[in-house]
Amino acid sequence: MSFPPIHRVVTGHDAEGNAVVASEGAPPKVVEIESIPGTLFQEIWATGATPAVVDNGEDPTLGDLQLSPPASGTRIRIVDIPPDSEEFLARGAEAMDAAFSQIGEVEASTVKSDSPHPLMHRTETVDYGILLEGELVLVLDRGVVTLKPGSVVVQRGTNHAWANRSGKPCRIAFILVDGRYDPALAEALEAR
To answer: Source organism's superkingdom (predicted)?
Structure first.
């Protein structure tokens, strides 16, 4: 299955303050995760502050690929996820370390020998995941949820993985918001 290309439209303002199209076309930053062939990160936009600076600044997606948003910022990306393969599942932690190294956050990996999936990870963010096409399984420490197109996940800094058990690729949009753990929750997570 092949998905339609992403069409990104970025607006801005001309010198007189009129709304204009600043850029239009495919996202300029599209990266395949080398250790998980077929996994494609398509970077759409990022903000570096809250409130976000509204300007005609440079495209924030052109730097190094980063999993989490900037401090006090946001990030939106679309991810194409291939079906889990026996080879990938067997490589487990090795594939996970390589993947998270490529996306700049190896410390996000929480994989252990008894983890329910080799891509278990956690970030100190609130993430909105919107399944666009295909089927995906949200794997948590305790429990799984099967997602279909139109499913929306509000991921609140929990340990999780995305498993594609459908045999077909899927596409999901993620909006990530920088966050901070509540002190009591941070203490509980440290104790684990």
So the answer is: Bacteria
Total residue length of the chain = 192
How far is the C-alpha of 62 from the C-alpha of 131, rounded, in Å? 25
Distance CA 110, CA 107 (A): 8
Query: Rounded CA gap, 47 and 53, in Å?
Result: 8
CB 67 within 8 A of CB 108: yes
Two tokens at 135? 């089927």
pTM to 2 decimal places: 0.94
Burial class (CB in 10 A: 0-12, 13-18, 19+), 33: buried
For every one of its 192 residues, what pLDDT tens digit does the chain have, with 9 covering 90 and above?
689 999 999 999 999 999 999 999 999 999 999 988 899 999 999 999 999 999 999 999 999 999 999 999 999 999 999 999 887 777 777 777 888 899 989 899 898 888 898 889 999 999 999 999 999 999 999 999 999 999 999 999 999 999 999 999 999 999 999 999 999 999 999 888
Q: Domains in the chain, please, with CATH?
A: 29-191 (2.60.120.10)
**Contact status, residue 141 vs residue 157, Cβ threshold 8 Å:** no
Beta strands per DSSP E along 40-169: 40-47, 74-81, 125-133, 136-140, 143-147, 152-156, 160-163
